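Standup notes, structure subgroup. Blocker cleared on the nicotinamide-adenine-dinucleotide input:
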Amino acid sequence: MTFDTVAADRPLRAVVVGAGFIGGQWAPELLAHPGTELVGWVDVAEDLARAAAGKLGLDDLAVGSSLTAVLDGEEPDFIVNCTTPQAHHDVTVTALRRGVAVLSEKPMAVTLDEARSMVKAADEARRLFAVNQNRRFMPTLVAFRRTVADLGPLGLLTSEFFMPYRGRPFLDTLEHPLLQDMAIHLFDAARAVSGADPISVYCESFRPAWTWYPGACSATAIFEMTGGLRYTFAGSWSAPGQPTSWTGSWRAAGTHGTARWDGDGHPPTVEAAKGLVLRPYAPEGDPFPDRRRFTGLAEGLEEFVTGLRTGRPPQGECHDNIRSLAMVTAALESARTGARVPIVT
Ligand SMILES: NC(=O)c1ccc[n+]([C@@H]2O[C@H](COP(=O)([O-])OP(=O)(O)OC[C@H]3O[C@@H](n4cnc5c(N)ncnc54)[C@H](O)[C@@H]3O)[C@@H](O)[C@H]2O)c1
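Run returned:
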């Protein structure tokens, strides 16, 4: 992967696209970062962008419903794509083709074909395109990842995600709401924690008798990963009690022992195999206590800005992140066909 850096001696100019929930979280990050400047806000519903800018006291900010008009008028270095997943492809490719780098919300796209064409557009434009998987920056996930790294070659990684959730009406419209919306967070975390990449998956997605969702809100999946690792996932949006955290509940077993993590604010625990000694890593302090708003946005922006300035790719760089999306799309294909599906990007 090769992308051009920005050498100009001035803050990086950024436009937020999408003025819904997460757009409203990203704009303050761009205002707070000493190396970025918010120069525009786009939403197909222009009044939403205007209202969101007004809420932050930015009455003079360039806002509009036309992405191309704001890009041409403001000449940003990058956009933050905060639109709904169905719009991710068009918004990202439009920016890349105009020479504008893209930091996107998850998921990269809805389909793998869309994602491939986005990666190709980034390559052709020589522009940085990354997806911010904000949970990668949770201090307890980082501590779990470091603890797992001491387990030696891994054999098993499991995560359970159980939530009695009914908060967003659009989930009712999805055929597989758990796999299509939430699972990418857990699947990407599995890659981050293990350092392994997916090879194939067998998945079932279904409706338990008691669920309040029209779609298949529950799923189990077995992923074969590189190094012989098996990653298993079980989850439900319709948990009848005993919820896990929003990042699930985790166990990793390797040659040297077992580590566990509650997916939340508690540090990981570890037990060494007989005759060995292992200690869990402690979570480190918040690197951005003054800028903390929404988990993992400040860190993701920092890595992206560093990438644009130095050429060092951030964690969610598109050639890497497409593998997390491929876990979702292959799991969906397996759920629909009943077959074990190879994972190729
Ligand atoms: N990382 C996280 O924890 C997290 C949390 C919430 C949302 N998200 C992700 O952020 C994205 C947005 O979610 P949200 O909850 O903010 O949604 P939302 O519906 O609140 O906001 C999306 C906005 O995008 C606008 N939009 C849609 N198509 C557009 C287009 N082509 N051009 C410009 N604007 C367009 C809509 O009008 C809307 O205002 C989704 O991909 C979602 O998965 C991530």
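Discussed briefly. The chain has a mean pLDDT of 96.
Next: hand off to the docking folks.
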